[in-house]
Amino acid sequence: MPQPDSEWKVDVQYTELDRLLHGDSSNSQGLAAMSKKDFKLHDAVLKEYSKYFGKDLTEDESLGGDTMRTDDYYTMAKYFYNLVTDFYEYGWGRSFHFCRFSYKEPFSKAIARHEHSLAHRIGIKEGMTVLDVGCGVAGPAIEIAKFTDARIVGLNINEYHIEKATGYVKQHGLTDRVSFVHSDFMQMKLPDNSFDAAYVIEATAHAPSLEGAYREIFRVLKPGSIVGIYEWVLTNRYDPNDLAHREIALALQQFNGIAKLFTVSEATRAIQAVGFQLLDHEDLADRPTAMPWYHPFTNSIFNTQTWSDVITYAPMSRWGRTLTHYLTGCLEMVRLLPRGTQRLGDDLSQAGENLVVGGEAKLFSPMYFMLAKKPEVDSS
């Protein structure tokens, strides 16, 4: 397997803010990593992120919230993940995405199956160079690299993510197959026609324009190559004239770092508008399954499907989130965690509650699947 090309290697140069905020916390996880932040900067970043949303729907719409957020999507997304990454690892794991659950299926296997399914449908195989658009801390990249033996290049705007991801890749002995690029998926620092395939796992939910993000993916793929996408969408049941629906959409945006949510029709139109041939698309959340994708947020540690998941589900269960609320509050009081950590945890708990509401009402899906092909070059 060839070594990553020099143009795709990344020597992460932290911005001064990121360097000072995170320090050496990338070597730790969860609450331990949170305790190593610069406390004043953490509080400042939380306050800056809060400015992107009104106190309620009326104020947010009067301020032109969607426009403000899409105009400043880059900074907003960086603030969000600088705040929540350690919480995500503490409560969910290293693969920052949802999945469906089969009967008696452990959480980790369900997450991996969701990733394997995407790789299989794209046709990723050994010898291919594949772009992971918005790679997080490399949970999916590592899994897909092991599953397919392909070479994965992860793209991410967040330096802290890349710092952590690089460490995890070393742990798995995959430095010859997984590398990273620090870049915005709206303006990729990558050459044209350079990848054999690409995938997106819920990452372009942070895009200010799906068409803009998909256009960049189209540009860097080789002719004839395939992209597979799990997209966050508002379903056809969503009614923009329904106040309750708009309130749910705003909550999903606020507590998940999203500038604007797009509809199913907007997503399918966008991918075709940039030149892709849409081969297949469906909402995987509509498929019959033992447990829905939002199951972890409704679950209790006392009714997990497998005993092995009791510990896994503990932080994300309602009981676990309540315990985290009081634990982080106590640690804040004795200055072992930065001010605002408890509030941040409460916000993420609200994210879970609103995801359940949106999922149960079928107004929202985090797994609208699209499979698309960049046309072959016309040789005539």
From TrEMBL:
GO terms for molecular function: sterol 24-C-methyltransferase activity. GO terms for cellular component: endoplasmic reticulum. Residues 80-375 form the SAM-dependent methyltransferase Erg6/SMT-type domain. Keywords: Methyltransferase, S-adenosyl-L-methionine, Transferase. Coiled coil: none annotated. It comes from the Eukaryota. InterPro entries: Erg6_SMT_methyltransf, Methyltranfer_dom, MeTrfase_SMT, SAM-dependent_MTases_sf, Sterol_MeTrfase_C. CDD domains: AdoMet_MTases. PROSITE patterns: SAM_MT_ERG6_SMT. It holds the Pfam family Sterol_MT_C. One of its GO terms (biological process) is ergosterol biosynthetic process. Belongs to the class I-like SAM-binding methyltransferase superfamily. Erg6/SMT family. This is SAM-dependent methyltransferase Erg6/SMT-type domain-containing protein. It comes from Polytolypa hystricis (strain UAMH7299). The lineage of its organism: Eukaryota, Fungi, Dikarya, Ascomycota, Pezizomycotina.
